[in-house]
Automatic annotation (TrEMBL):
It comes from the Bacteria. This is Dihydrofolate reductase. Pfam families: DHFR_1. Belongs to the dihydrofolate reductase family. One of its GO terms (biological process) is tetrahydrofolate biosynthetic process. Gene3D superfamilies: Dihydrofolate Reductase, subunit A. It catalyses: (6S)-5,6,7,8-tetrahydrofolate + NADP(+) = 7,8-dihydrofolate + NADPH + H(+). GO terms for molecular function: dihydrofolate reductase activity; kinase activity; NADP+ binding. Pathway: Cofactor biosynthesis; tetrahydrofolate biosynthesis; 5,6,7,8-tetrahydrofolate from 7,8-dihydrofolate: step 1/1. InterPro entries: DHFR, DHFR-like_dom_sf, DHFR_dom. One of its GO terms (cellular component) is cytosol.
Amino acid sequence: MITLIAAIAKNNALGKNNDLIWHLPADLKRFRQLTTGHHMIMGRKTYESIGKPLPNRTTIIVSRNPEYFQEGCLMASSLEDAIQISKNEEVICIVGGEQIYRQALENDLVDALDITLVHHEFDADAFFPEIDTKIWEEISREDFKADEKNKFDYSFIKYQKRAN
């Protein structure tokens, strides 16, 4: 099962200047729950924004630079190579960024989407592709109001591929 995990704004914003543009502790907690114990595939820029391998997960970095290396991580030259490295895993998480998300969706490499939708629009330079509702069916949604820790209203939404 290959699951794409992303936090996006109402205008599909992902980030700006290689960083998140909001702070939602509830989303970070959910991300940890979804990815712990699994292989996480991410692009080089996403890895560099995090800065280190996350505990209790296998980090696979996709980079076209064959000399790029990060201690404690596995390296892949393409998204397909990263998936091949993880082929024996029950759950593979694709966690960003924009180019990796786009490749995964355009090449039909994903089985499910786990989306945090932040109910706000942000100025951004990285955007998530439109979710095609002809392909993806929403199967669950949890809505939350802003609180003292989470500044914006948000929803956790799960999608699965529609049957042909």
